[in-house]
């Protein structure tokens, strides 16, 4: 059976402390991006480092 690929945006939620959220918010601001783009950049870097080993 063919697999259906969805191109819809999906949401991911996770819980972090107020202090950690403030750090991530400030880092995104200093990177001139929003939280979503900042987190995707981080995940991309970590993914590349993990699979480059």
Automatic annotation (TrEMBL):
Coiled coil: none
GO aspect biological process, one term: regulation of DNA-templated transcription
Domain of life: Bacteria
Gene3D superfamilies assigned to the protein according to its UniProt record, in alphabetical order: Single helix bin
Residue stretches spanning the membrane: none
The entry's keywords: Toxin-antitoxin system
UniProt-listed InterPro entries: Ribbon_hlx_hlx, TacA_1-like
Keyword NADP among record annotations: no
Family as reported in the entry's similarity comment: Belongs to the TacA antitoxin family.
Protein name: DUF1778 domain-containing protein
Organism lineage: Bacteria, Pseudomonadati, Pseudomonadota, Betaproteobacteria, Neisseriales
